[in-house]
Specification:
This protein has 429 residues and is α+β, with helices and mostly antiparallel strands. Helices cover 14% and strands 35% of the residues.
Length: 429
């Protein structure tokens, strides 16, 4: 099964689970092949590990979100030795001992802080197009934190030829980047649909640890109906546990011309406001958490909600409790040659005052995007996303990594650090 659309994957799982039902009812489970059982167990694994803290599994592609409960009840019955399945089904036993998880055949990567309802969660899609029910949505993500979804996609719509159907299928309905007003286009490229057989992991850069999670994906199949606009989009996501994510995009065109870029964030909120420092803050019902977006390297931002004329924008049929118009932050930037932009994505507790954080660019001596985030207590977070070719100096440090992060504590000492794609981090002379 490689449609990569949750609803259809679950339909396949239910059909195969019928075999397990008959085997258990007739006391013949031991006659089922071990490799077959392993495959079924791994499908239940996905349902558990890809589920959000509220128990819903993001649909992706042509699917709605699904409640894991029914499937965990089945999983606990078929695999009674799995305490985590029993925990998810009945609230008894132990939750999974793993948090973040890479599904490197489907290209889905999950970052989370825990298994409680107020935990933080992000699912990033860097996988193939899928064999059917596809959306033009590579490098999109959904995010949940502090008791609610904050970043959603357009979801699904009835199978007709309306503008709403075109919207949910398009890049416009997802949290990724459009180029020159054009969408991704893999539908005409069958080689992008699935992995070649025999299947091998994608090998997407991925790391998870106590303080950080990191993933990187790329889209290079072209934009527009004829795929003629050739720009490679590379997206890095660094989770600075447990507080916020850094999303860093590089857009690398094949030609020397100038291109226009739109980065989209579909917000599960009543409204959103652009604050005096240029950050975007979602406005949610009283008593619910919010989301703060701060950008680096963008030219402008606009909030679009419920636009009905073409091109349709600012709608979702996936946001819990709100089928209809939602505020969507549309960030714009442009230029010739490689362009980079970054966002700090921070959940804000309902009772917490949303901070006016200082995010400043840092000059570098190479082809890199670097910044400094200053927290209210004076802690400084320095980060750099480079081209990975040689050493880069940023904020008083030198690194040979393609991603580097340094935490500078108020007393001047160094706290947490992160490197990916390199080994060196030292003070600049």
């Amino acid at each position: 099964e490689y449609e990569l659309a949750l609803g259809y994957n679950l339909w396949v799982l239910r059909n195969y689970a019928n075999v397990l039902d008959f085997a258990v009812l007739n006391n013949r489970r031991d006659e089922l092949p071990r490799d077959w059982l392993d495959r079924i167990e791994s499908m239940f694994d996905y349902v558990l590990y890809a589920s959000m803290p509220d128990g819903l599994v993001p649909g992706l592609n042509d699917s709605g979100n699904a409640d894991r409960g029914r499937y965990m009840e089945m999983a606990a019955r078929y695999f009674p030795e799995r305490e985590d399945f029993r925990w998810a089904a009945e609230g008894e036993g132990d939750p999974p001992d793993r948090l973040s998880r890479a599904f490197d055949y489907s290209g889905h990567y999950v970052m989370r802080t825990g298994w409680t309802p107020d935990a933080s969660f992000l699912l990033f899609d860097a996988g193939p197009f899928g064999s059917g029910h596809q959306h033009e949505d590579k490098l999109t993500f959904v995010m949940y934190a502090l008791g609610r979804m904050h970043v959603v996609d357009a979801g699904n719509y009835m199978y007709d030829d309306s503008r709403w159907r075109r919207y949910v299928l398009s890049t416009r309905g997802h949290n990724t980047v459009r180029v020159d007003g054009l969408d991704q286009h893999r539908r005409g490229l069958r080689e992008t649909y699935t992995l070649d057989y025999p299947f091998q992991p994608l090998g997407t850069p991925w790391a998870t640890g106590e303080d950080f999670d990191f993933v990187r994906g790329s889209y290079d199949s072209g934009y527009g109906d004829d795929n003629s606009v050739r720009v490679e989009h590379t997206r890095n996501i660094l989770f600075v546990r447990p507080d916020y994510w850094i999303i860093a995009d590089r857009l690398a065109p094949e030609d020397a011309g100038e291109h226009r870029y739109e980065a989209l964030f579909h917000l599960n909120a009543d409204e959103a406001e652009i604050r005096r420092d240029g950050s975007v803050l979602s406005i949610t019902p009283q008593g619910e958490s919010r989301l703060l977006l701060t950008s680096l390297g963008t030219d402008a931002v606009e909030i679009v909600k419920g636009r009905e004329e073409e091109p349709v924008q600012g709608w979702s049929w996936a946001a819990p409790g709100r089928d209809g118009a939602i505020p969507t932050a549309v960030y714009r930037f442009s230029g010739a040659g490689d362009q980079m932009a970054a966002w700090i994505m921070r959940p804000v507790r309902a009772e917490e005052e949303a901070p006016f954080e200082t995010l400043q660019p840092i000059d570098t001596d190479g082809d890199a995007l670097a910044g400094q985030l200053t927290l209210p207590d004076g802690t400084r977070h320095l980060f750099a996303f480079t081209d990975g070719r040689g050493e880069t100096e940023f904020g008083g440090f030198v690194t040979d990594a393609d991603v580097a992060f340094v935490e500078m504590l108020p007393d001047g000492s160094i706290g947490r650090t992160f490197l990916h794609g390199g080994h060196t981090l030292r003070p600049a002379r």
